[in-house]
């Protein structure tokens, strides 16, 4: 015991030194910030912009140093040469530039996550430090150099072989949920670490059952890539795509806690700047819109706006007649298409060619040689003649993506012509009045249309050239400023150039990227990727031409009808075979009893479930109550009873505790009303901040990707009837307990002995 106390005291001393250094750095940055601010608003605009840029820089750095307060240091490696290496949230050096703390993402930290007794990587001992605030409250050692141990001791003591730092891990898993996802930086497991540090290049697909840490791994990988490839990714940006706004809010603290704030987060519906996809949509309609054939439908719809007239048309211009002939139109079209430019851009060539042909007719009637300036006037006259304008528009209509897609939905003959491969029923599903709100499934179609239509981008291209030149000059200037101010290494010249606001407020990379439909990112992370339709994949791949992607999901949890049933089926057509697959196999969330029941039910429903081992079990994790009498409201009343008991149970959970009632869509409103009627309304969350409240009522679909301490699941058979994936998702949300209330028989595959039955 005395040995342990001594060890703890030793670690406390070391941790104190690290926090002291952190405080020193914070004070230093704050002082620099004060100095910059003290200089006031005088000086040339150039000086002012430079000062503002440094002020923002110091503010960011202070914020970053503040964000690493919790568990600053969490590990120690004892190495063969007798040295010790402390692992933490960021790297720290002392005033002599000697390393005090190694960033968890640095190559030197990798052994903390990967070393095993079989592959020690020079590690004699791995130590996990447990801290609360700035106090060291525990240490947990794993001795990897077995020669230094007695026989029979594996130096690990894990209940399940392969888990590292089991005590710290189990403590993390058992902690109460707060409604926000936390980082796992202190307890990343080896199979997760291999994915996190996998190469930047190419598309990496991570398949794993529920609770295997896919979301956690995806976020830590984003932080790792930004660390390891900062130069490239800071400039091009990283995009993270998630399934819903609630989900994005659930995860929004993880990257900042890892010191990264520049990642753009979006749902598929957010990816077309200027379009707000707010309307809900029937699954069947979304499925049709998501089919790969819709790319051909949109392409045909565009092409059908290029039409050769059936007859000649004579037009009077200034007392003379010119004739628009089908043959001229056809030839002008052929010329316009030659460069394969998008519709609206090729149209410029078409119109120019047609006007030139009409001008030839006009000039021929004048008989004399016509000087070139007069030909210009004739061209202008023809261009502004109404009948000619109408005829040329009918032949080659200028279009916005919105108009094209809206017309497809609103004008049945257009859809018949563009989509012969769709059945009458499918086409009827797409029918919609003009002016209706956009849905998430419309966005990939609009994006497809935007690609094929293009914008008249001459002005935009000139602007882009000017911007690029100015940017090069600014980066060069920033480089000189960094060199002369001794700030190299703190920030890249590119980032500092972003901050120089010489011409009004300048946007960060993330802001610029989010506002630009044609932005191409350096890396894209997709979570719950199994839900994306074929059309959504096409859109996403346009955002990342390098195909540097992290794609995480579980094809057994697919609930969208347009989503993936297998990765190969969904990704081969868009990525060909240029993607690699990794699997996660350990469930860290759900108690083993609940996970086993969910696997069994999902297997019976023929879902392609992955192998899954569970890191732990919890006593009485599964409770089932069958309601046999009392009318249809009885199930709702039983759900409320369980919800109340669970919320009360959470009072004893340190640091949080969240309860969700997951019910079939038709029962959500009755459950909500019953909760309010029972006086539990104050605990109930709603809107964007719903996850912050102690209690929430959700459909299975809305619970996707989220987790709660206790889930009360209402009528699993009804959930299954809508979608087997929905039931698998709903059953695998709790970290402590699943309470099931039902009248209808339990779904096939429900283990007979699973769950303490309540009468
Ligand atoms: N190495 C780890 N250490 C501590 N906690 C972990 C670890 N890996 C995963 N977890 C925790 O397990 C839970 C599930 O993780 P996560 O949500 O990332 O899983 P998922 O695979 O995305 O699940 P789903 O497919 O069900 O959405 C989270 O609370 C996460 O913090």
From TrEMBL:
Entries under InterPro entries matching the protein: DNA_helicase_UvrD/REP, P-loop_NTPase, UvrD-like_ATP-bd
Q: Which residues cross the membrane?
A: none
- Which intervals hold domain UvrD-like helicase ATP-binding? 187-591
Q: Which domain of life is it from?
A: Bacteria
Q: Name one GO biological process term.
A: recombinational repair
Chain residue ranges for the region called Disordered: 31-52
| Alphabetized GO MF terms | 3'-5' DNA helicase activity; ATP binding; DNA binding; hydrolase activity
- Skewed-composition ranges (Basic and acidic residues): 31-40
Q: Which UniProt keywords apply?
A: ATP-binding, Helicase, Hydrolase, Nucleotide-binding
Chain positions recorded as ATP binding sites = 208-215
Q: Gene Ontology cellular component?
A: cytosol
Its recorded name reads DNA helicase
